[in-house]
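Backbone-to-sequence.
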């Protein structure tokens, strides 16, 4: 296992359109484990392969959704490996929220996203999966899938701020 180097803005590598994964080889399992480890170490809640210098359509996400009752304990994080993900449905409703990005250190920005999305992807074993997400999970999926198309949240942000507190770190993708 290894921590991977994060490619940071304005490296033009982040602007490439990533290639679909044709076959999930054994070494991709190692890459996936390393991506989870790198994401947790930063810490972040999502990581796309272009951010670690691999121009392939692969995303990992690990995020514990906030319970609706604020006194309830934080649930176990949900983990996803998305191979060749595609957003097949978007809600009309949009919401604004603060995002950060491991590839754009030191900044956060306000981005309007669809409130819910349905994502089709393969899992780490090549099995098709369909995930309906809303709120922050939907935001994370949209942010990560954007990375695969060379889009950064700063392209979409209405306001960008310098991030001075650690408080926002759970939103870093
Ligand atoms: Zn990002």
């Amino acid at each position: 296992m290894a921590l991977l180097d994060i490619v940071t803005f304005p490296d033009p590598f982040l602007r490439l359109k990533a290639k679909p994964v044709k076959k999930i080889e054994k070494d991709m399992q190692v890459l996936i484990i390393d991506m989870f480890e790198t994401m947790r170490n930063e810490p972040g809640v999502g990581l796309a392969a272009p951010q670690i210098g691999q121009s392939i359509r692969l995303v990992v996400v690990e995020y514990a959704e906030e319970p609706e009752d604020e006194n309830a304990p934080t649930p176990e994080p949900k983990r996803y490996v998305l191979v060749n993900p595609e957003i097949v449905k978007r809600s009309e409703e949009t919401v604004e929220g603060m995002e950060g990005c491991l590839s754009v250190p030191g900044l956060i920005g306000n981005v309007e996203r669809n409130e819910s999305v349905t994502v089709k992807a393969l899992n780490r074993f090549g099995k098709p999966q369909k995930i309906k997400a809303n709120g922050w999970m939907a935001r994370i999926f949209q942010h990560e899938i954007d990375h695969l198309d060379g889009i950064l949240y700063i392209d979409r942000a209405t306001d960008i701020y310098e991030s001075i507190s650690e408080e926002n770190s759970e939103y870093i993708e």
